[in-house]
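TA notes, week 10

Several of you asked for a full example with nothing omitted. So below is the full record: structure tokens for the whole chain, then the designed sequence directly under it. When grading your own attempts, check the secondary structure regions first.
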């Protein structure tokens, strides 16, 4: 589309639809069933209008939401918006990244000064009143509050052409409330606040018609609109009705016939919009229907006026703000190369789009498109072209939005316009204000008559001015940014025009090549301006950092866009010449080139710039940058010698090698220079510096690359030089002497140097190159591969070269011809001979280095196509050298080297018998294992493990794996086990736990023979403990006892050993083991006088009294020791006291023993009568009371108090089993308590009484609460499951069909407590019910569960009882027509499936903690709590009733959220 010839005129040329810019929409978006039987207008008008009714679709055949593509519609179904969950919609809305794209100023805002001045003048001079309405076509018409219509021309002068009407007419009709011009700009319709309509001839200003009876009197005209048919118009009044106006001329008389399209008594329409077509679209198939969109307060209706009145579709808004203003706007949009009308409509912040199209069969489709979510309340909606919308929000901010991308392009504040609002007309103040409250509320923000669009322009009417908004063309948008000196944003915007990604584009060619050419010229112009402005505005004084930052903000931008536009000639000539004038700008420019060169975006730099770049980087000591740049550029235009010298002086070895190779095709000189640096210190045996190590590693990588056909550090050697380079490198490495050889220089200095530097890595180089040759032999000659360039030049460290070599040698196949050359084979043999001569005949190399050489040779010799020859005697010499028994140094290193040599195939080079003998003498047990493994001598391998101090622990895994894994014969396994039995004592000593595991898992029947072989009792004890006691070890895996059962005598043997070695663990063992005999076990424990264990066994036997006597005797002994210890305390020396404090004190032993005997009495009292309980408890009480009379004097006070506390513990424990009077009587008979004052036992007696009263009150209160809460819960459950349910609509929320209209078959209806209603079949299809017996089905509300983030059926089984979306009573209702008397028939009701759901719901309704939970905590208290009750100063636990402020209060039933 070419640019408009006059972009400043008020009216641009008629907007053309550019079919080149077609929206790509998924075909699934159009997979919607056609309209079969759309509803009639009468059925729409007869429907009840409810303000609170959520959106519905009157006929789902018009808009089947199941087939809408998920990518073209933000919500999963239209019905899901019923819930009004805006956060759900926003969450799915595509997020737009802010500041990702520069759009610049999209709209040009101009004031129509001529019209504005004449509006003010008319108000003053002819009392025209304030402006109230505006419309635009070929002319601009402004209506006033005194009934005048002012017609202005659209030329530059904006002259007043006509003044229609008079103030007298205005006094009678009221203010002009609506205006409309027909398509050929010959007629004007004016609607007035008191309901009249006039038609004027715009050619001569003649009044043609005055219409007073087109609609009910007493209502204002809100809208009057011409259709495409000049004889047909529509009007909308403040009563909410819509009428069709048909103009006729009969017998010279002009008449007007009115027909009601929508009655305000059934719902108030507040906006109408007919579909108007441009002249070039008059033949569109949709135009013949004369479409009209109407917006009521609850829904959108699209009807066709021709050939007969017909409703095409309805679409509800859903729950919106009642003050929001409904908006409608039609636009023809190209979609998939077909132009069809799209209706944009909104109420609130969401814009919906409906595409109307007619297919080949003549069927009309209305298809919902992807909606647009804005964070504002929209009061005006207009199309400015087929891709761009302009909306006005309630804050009078104008927003430009691109519909395909949903991106907001620009926001303008229009508060200064002082927009005219139509509130008085919506409230019908001129006729007495007889309108509904809902319509008056909408009218607060209505500005329908103040904003109008025509041919890509918008006119806004203010109280004293008129404004026009037009799209800026692309040049103007860029120039706006340039005027503000926002050059970076201007370049970004221009680049988006260049690439075709910009939005709201005007004035560019449709042809991409022409478009890019025009925009590129503009971008070059901007670049020149940017550079010029930056140079001129550079601060002349101040810190150098400020000046550098000034140019660092500009230079990368300029370089980027020059490279994007492929104009490096401009960059290095005109722009660089201008920047050179400023030294700071020059430096910043040169430094900024490095990242582009390294990333290979900039591959060619002119010679002057290249020289300046190297000079600048060298002067600023940026040598790493010099190297980075050199290895990525063509340096043939530079002084090679000067560059090489610079690289050598600054240790830029990568760059030096690159210059030699690329500039002079010299591959040998770089190696000579590097050898000259690292050879002297290696010859003298000195340690290398870090720099020399780096050089050596680079040398190894360089040699490997040269032999593999790769250039260093990146790229490939030219194919015609590959063979030549290889020959040169081999000849250089195999030279007898260097070029500057002295008399003392040894033979083959280069190979010797590399071997001394890193033997392993140098041999890896040779091995990898050989491997590459073999691989390339299999590749056909015609195969070609483009290797990847390696841009990283980080030098490898020593020890990491192999990986680097692998990277360099991969995917190369340039050695085919060389491999087949006999000279290559001679080179390989010669290299091997030299390696042997250098290393074997010299004592300078370590065993590891020699081993590396022979490992390398063994690998080469083991290959099937080997052609190398090595004298076998050399291998024997190496073997003797490595296995020398006299040399203890580097034992592990020598063994590892020999093992590696054998593993790569070197074993064939040795005599195995001699090798085994030498290995045994040298104690190379891994070598012996390797050889025994080949001979299947597995028992001897065990000797190797046992004799190897470093690997002794591994023998257990070896034995287990060999006995468990398949592949070994039974004879071999038996041989290994016999060997293990032979050394079982050694194995148990090494690790008894692992030994026990082996025995239990593989040979459990050998336990007794093993024990007989273990002569040491402590070893037997350790073995049995690991075998029988699960608590003895914590090793991983299943314990042997789970797999092994042994005879009781072994358990008893283990018990005896436990009594000897760890007697404290005996009781724990008795509790976990069940395989011993009780009588024998009791004898053992009595033999070793372990009373606690004896008591446990007696109790287990059933002799509780005997166990009690044993523990009681133990307690008495400890009490006796305690009292005697106090008597002799003064005689004990300080040393003895210190030793006692380290051990357990006598009082602690008494407490421990008392705890055991109390626990025994508790367990036994459960099954005893009252007399038998007294036999247990009273001796215990007596035993605790009797020692207290022996404690006298101040020194025994602490012990006496402790014993009294322990006695109180006994009393508290026995109070649960012995009557309180009997206890008190026994206490009073005791001399300790009987001779004192009553105060000593007062606390005890009062505590008992308080406990009795408390427990009695607790029991009564608990019973009352349980009865009350049970009654309350059951009554609420009954009320919840039996109450009636009121549906919020009379249609199914899935299929959207009204159940009362289905005549085909009776349908079962499911109603939920949330008010949603469904057909039973629809709910089953959505998976929101369990399929089973009819009375046992469980349902969940599909809409409520969908709004929580999932589909209906996903949460049925887990959350059927959560929230109000689950039905408490599933009532099945038949269709209205199914009953004989026309009323609803209720089916049978069942409560069984819902009881668990209702209980869950009631449980969620509690506020605060449950009273029963508190009581449960109290009732679960045991002995320690009672101790606290009887002795308040020593509470037993921190339970809630131990709080001194605790009071038991009877609270009312918990409140419920209704």
């Amino acid at each position: 589309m070419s640019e408009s010839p006059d972009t400043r005129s008020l009216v641009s040329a008629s907007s053309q639809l550019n079919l080149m810019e077609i929206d790509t929409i998924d075909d699934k978006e159009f997979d919607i069933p056609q309209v079969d039987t759309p509803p009639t207008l009468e059925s729409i008008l007869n429907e009840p209008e409810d303000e609170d009714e959520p959106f519905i679709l009157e006929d789902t055949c018009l808009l089947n939401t199941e087939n809408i593509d998920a990518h073209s519609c933000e919500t999963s179904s239209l019905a899901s918006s019923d819930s009004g969950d805006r956060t759900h919609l926003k969450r799915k809305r595509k997020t737009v990244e802010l500041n990702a794209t520069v759009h610049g100023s999209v709209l040009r805002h101009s004031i129509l000064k001529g019209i504005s001045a004449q509006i003010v003048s008319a108000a003053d001079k002819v009392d025209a009143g304030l402006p109230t309405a505006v419309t635009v076509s070929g002319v601009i018409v402004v209506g006033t509050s005194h009934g005048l219509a002012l017609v202005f021309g659209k030329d530059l002068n904006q002259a007043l052409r006509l003044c229609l009407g008079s103030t007298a007419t205005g006094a009678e009709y009221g203010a002009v409330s609506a205006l409309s011009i027909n398509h050929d700009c010959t007629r004007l319709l004016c609607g007035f606040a008191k309901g009249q309509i006039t038609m004027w001839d715009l050619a001569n200003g003649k009044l043609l018609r005055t219409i007073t009876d087109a609609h009910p009197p007493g209502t204002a005209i809100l809208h009057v609109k011409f259709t495409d048919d000049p004889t047909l118009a529509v009007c909308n009044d403040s009563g909410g009705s819509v009428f069709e106006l048909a103009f006729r001329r009969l017998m010279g008389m002009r008449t007007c016939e009115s027909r009601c399209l929508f009655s305000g008594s059934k719902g108030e329409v507040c906006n109408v919009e007919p579909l108007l077509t441009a002249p070039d679209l008059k033949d569109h198939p949709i135009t013949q229907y004369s479409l009209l969109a109407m917006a009521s307060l609850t829904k959108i209706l699209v009807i066709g006026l021709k050939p007969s009145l017909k409703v095409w579709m309805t679409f509800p808004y859903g729950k919106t703000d009642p003050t929001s203003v409904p908006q409608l706007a039609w636009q023809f949009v190209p979609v998939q190369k077909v132009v069809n009308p799209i209706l944009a409509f909104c109420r609130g912040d969401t814009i919906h789009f409906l595409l109307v199209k007619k297919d080949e069969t003549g069927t009309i489709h209305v298809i919902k498109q992807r909606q647009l979510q804005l964070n504002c309340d929209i009061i005006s909606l207009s199309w400015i072209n087929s891709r761009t919308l302009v909306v006005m929000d309630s804050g009078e901010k104008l927003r430009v939005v691109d519909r395909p991308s949903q991106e907001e392009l620009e926001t303008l504040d229009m508060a200064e316009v002082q927009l005219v609002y139509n509130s008085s007309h919506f409230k019908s103040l001129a006729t007495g204000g007889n309108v509904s409250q809902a319509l008056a509320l909408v009218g607060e923000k209505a500005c329908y008559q103040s904003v109008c669009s025509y041919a890509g322009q918008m006119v806004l009417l203010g109280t004293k001015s008129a404004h026009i908004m037009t799209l800026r063309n692309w040049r103007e948008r860029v120039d706006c940014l340039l005027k503000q000196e926002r050059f970076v944003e201007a370049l970004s915007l221009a680049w988006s025009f260049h690439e075709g990604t910009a939005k709201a584009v005007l004035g560019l060619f449709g042809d991409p090549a022409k478009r890019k050419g025009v925009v590129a010229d503009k971008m070059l112009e901007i670049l020149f301006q940017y550079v010029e402005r930056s140079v001129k505005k550079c601060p002349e004084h101040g810190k150098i950092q400020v000046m550098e930052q000034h140019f660092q903000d500009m230079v990368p931008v300029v370089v980027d866009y020059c490279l994007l536009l492929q104009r490096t000639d401009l960059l290095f000539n005109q722009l660089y010449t201008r920047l050179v004038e400023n030294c700071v700008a020059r430096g910043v420019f040169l430094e900024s080139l490095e990242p582009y060169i390294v990333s290979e975006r900039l591959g060619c730099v002119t010679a002057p710039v290249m020289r300046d770049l190297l000079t600048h980087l060298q002067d600023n000591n940026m040598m790493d940058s010099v190297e980075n740049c050199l290895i990525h550029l063509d340096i043939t235009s530079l002084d090679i010698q000067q560059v090489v010298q610079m690289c050598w002086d600054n240790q830029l070895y990568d760059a030096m090698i690159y210059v030699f190779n690329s500039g002079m095709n010299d591959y040998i000189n770089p190696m000579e220079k590097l050898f000259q640096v690292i050879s002297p210190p290696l010859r003298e045996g000195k340690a290398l510096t870090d720099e020399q190590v780096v050089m050596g590693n680079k040398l190894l990588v360089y040699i490997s690359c040269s032999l593999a056909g790769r250039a260093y550090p990146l790229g490939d050697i030219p194919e015609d030089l590959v063979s030549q380079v290889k020959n040169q490198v081999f000849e250089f490495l195999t030279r007898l002497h260097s070029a500057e050889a002295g008399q003392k220089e040894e033979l083959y200095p280069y190979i010797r140097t590399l071997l001394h530097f890193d033997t392993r890595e140098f041999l890896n180089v040779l091995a990898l190159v050989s491997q590459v040759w073999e691989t390339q032999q299999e590749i056909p000659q015609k195969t070609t591969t483009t290797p990847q360039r390696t841009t990283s030049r980080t030098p490898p460290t020593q020890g990491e070269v192999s990986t680097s070599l692998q990277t360099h040698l991969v995917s190369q196949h340039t050695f085919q011809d060389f491999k087949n050359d006999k000279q290559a084979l001679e080179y390989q043999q010669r290299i091997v001979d030299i390696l042997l001569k250098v290393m074997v005949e010299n004592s300078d190399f370590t065993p590891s280095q020699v081993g590396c050489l022979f490992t390398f040779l063994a690998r080469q010799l083991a290959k099937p196509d080997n052609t190398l020859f090595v004298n076998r005697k050399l291998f024997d010499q190496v073997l003797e050298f490595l296995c020398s028994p006299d040399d203890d140094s580097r034992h592990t290193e020598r063994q590892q080297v020999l093992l590696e040599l054998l593993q790569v195939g070197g074993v064939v080079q040795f005599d195995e018998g001699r090798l085994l003998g030498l290995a045994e003498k040298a104690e190379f047990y891994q070598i012996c294992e390797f050889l025994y493994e080949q001979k299947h001598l597995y028992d001897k391998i065990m000797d190797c493990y046992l004799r190897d101090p470093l690997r002794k622990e591994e023998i257990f895994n070896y034995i287990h794996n060999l006995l468990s894994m398949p592949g070994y014969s039974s004879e071999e396994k038996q041989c290994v086990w016999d060997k293990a039995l032979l050394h079982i004592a050694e194995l148990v000593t090494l690790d008894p736990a692992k030994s026990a595991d082996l025995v239990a898992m593989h040979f459990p029947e050998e336990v007794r023979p093993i024990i007989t072989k273990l002569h040491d009792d402590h070893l037997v004890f350790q073995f049995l403990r690991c075998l029988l006691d699960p608590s003895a070890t914590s090793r991983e895996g299943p314990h042997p006892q789970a797999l092994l059962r042994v005879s009781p005598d072994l358990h008893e043997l283990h018990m005896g050993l436990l009594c000897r070695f760890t007697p404290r663990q005996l009781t724990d063992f008795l509790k976990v083991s069940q395989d011993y005999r009780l009588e024998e076990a009791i004898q053992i424990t009595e033999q070793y006088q372990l009373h606690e264990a004896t008591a446990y066994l007696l109790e287990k036997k059933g002799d509780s009294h005997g166990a009690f006597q044993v523990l009681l005797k133990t307690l008495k002994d400890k009490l006796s020791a305690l009292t005697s210890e106090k008597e002799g305390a003064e005689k004990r020396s300080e040393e003895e006291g210190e030793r006692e404090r380290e051990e357990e004190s006598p009082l602690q032993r008494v407490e421990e023993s008392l705890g055991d005997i109390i626990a025994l009495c508790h367990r036994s009292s459960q099954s005893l009568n009252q007399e038998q309980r007294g036999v247990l408890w009273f001796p215990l009480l007596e035993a605790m009371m009797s020692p207290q009379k022996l404690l006298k004097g101040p020194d025994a006070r602490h012990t006496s108090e402790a014993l009294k506390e322990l006695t109180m513990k006994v009393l508290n424990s026995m109070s649960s089993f012995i009557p309180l009077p009997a206890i008190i009587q026994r206490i009073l008979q005791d001399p300790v308590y009987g001779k004192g004052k009553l105060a000593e036992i007062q606390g005890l007696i009062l505590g008992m009484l308080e406990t009795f009263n408390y427990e009695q009150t607790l029991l009564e209160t608990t019973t009352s609460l349980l009865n009350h809460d049970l009654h309350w819960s059951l009554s609420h459950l009954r009320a919840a499951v039996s109450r009636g349910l009121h549906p919020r609509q009379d249609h199914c929320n899935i299929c959207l069909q009204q159940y009362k209209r289905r005549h085909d078959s009776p349908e079962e209806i499911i109603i939920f407590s949330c008010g949603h209603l469904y057909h039973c079949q629809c709910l089953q299809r959505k998976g929101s019910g369990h399929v089973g017996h009819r009375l046992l089905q469980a349902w969940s509300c599909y809409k409520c569960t969908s709004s929580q983030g999932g589909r209906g059926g996903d949460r049925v089984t887990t959350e059927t009882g959560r929230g109000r979306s689950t039905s408490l009573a599933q009532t099945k209702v038949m269709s209205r027509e199914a009953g004989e008397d026309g009323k609803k028939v209720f089916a049978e009701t069942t409560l069984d499936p819902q009881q668990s759901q209702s209980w869950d719901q009631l449980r969620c309704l509690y506020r605060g903690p449950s009273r029963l939970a508190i009581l449960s905590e109290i009732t679960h208290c045991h002995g320690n709590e009672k101790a606290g009750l009887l002795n308040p100063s020593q509470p037993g636990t921190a339970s809630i009733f131990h709080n001194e402020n605790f009071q038991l209060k009877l609270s009312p039933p918990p409140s419920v959220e209704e």
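Residues 1239-1282 form the longest helix (44 residues). Use that as a sanity check on your answer.
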